[in-house]
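Example record

Each entry pairs one chain with its bound ligand, zinc ion.
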Amino acid sequence: MSKRDYYEVLGVGRDATEQQIKSAYRKQALKFHPDRNPGDAKAEEAFKEAAEAYSIVSDAEKRSLYDRFGHAGVSGAGAGGFDPNQFAGFEDIFGNLGDLFGFGDVFGGRRRRGGPQRGSDLRYDLEISFEESYTGTETPIQIPREETCETCSGNGAAPGTSPETCGQCRGSGQQRFQQGFLTVARPCPNCRGTGKTIAKPCQACRGAGRVGRERKITAKIPAGIATGQRLRIYGEGEHGSAGGPAGDLYVVVHVQEHAFFEREGDDLYCEMPISFPTLALGGDIRVPTMAGDEEIKVPAGTQPGARFKLRGKGMPNVSGRGTGDLFAIAKVAVPKKLTREQKQLLEELARTLPDEKVDPSGDNADKPFFEKVKDIFG
Ligand SMILES: [Zn+2]
Ligand SMILES: [Zn+2]
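Structure tokens for the complex follow.
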């Protein structure tokens, strides 16, 4: 079987640019990758063929030899001119896309270890009082986090020295070996994938390049914040490595309960004990709010459970969209102790009210009990 033309294999013209060749190979490799075509010998053959073609055409020197002398010009370089290590170039083309396609197992450890990495995000749980959530607050918080070591600027080597390129992997951070026709890569055990070794570790961080610190920052808690809401403070997470950006800090807020108010959305609810005479006769009462007492009018004949709405006396909306309302719910205040005079007056009152006892011989003996209750108080 005669060898196919390398340009034909990749599906590009003889005048294709480096970029066109790269992208053509990328397409072929994705299409015929063994992971996507398990057990398909034809696909494997096509995959190998494309890799071989790419290994020649992507190399300026080999390409010019091939252009002038054809397959004969490049076949001397090795078995069929195909260098299996060409698969090393694969990662440059695919970058992180390889992970997306699950090529990680074949090309293992492709992630550039030791390269810039974003620091981790941190979470901080903050408890504040109900009043603080009403007014908003600024509170200092201390976060233990990893920071870049100042002594070695994060490279882990003692001052005056610097990390050296790992001799075993020559700085790639990977160990490559062949498995069938594929080259498999693993993190280099000598440098643990960083590509660098440190002869004299920095004393301050023991070579880690990072140190644990307590960082003090001031968290600005906006008015109206509720339990479970979180604030994101950009760049206050852990430092990145090798110049990568820092992570973020998430402050998760827990608001203590209030003895009198309950929050629902931006509205507040409270139960307001009111004496029986005020409920019956009407009158003015004072209702506490988060911003001081308010006087409200209780109409005569107010029933327990009646709601009084105090507009705009609830919680401020955390996003600045207005303020909730306060609902005071009427409750009967029953005195636990009575003076002799109060007792006499109440007894007198009781005599004037309809009898609450159920009389089975009365005219409404066959009415259900709740009907009788309605007759008395209706
Ligand atoms: Zn250090
Ligand atoms: Zn190494």
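The two ends are 105 Å apart (CA to CA).
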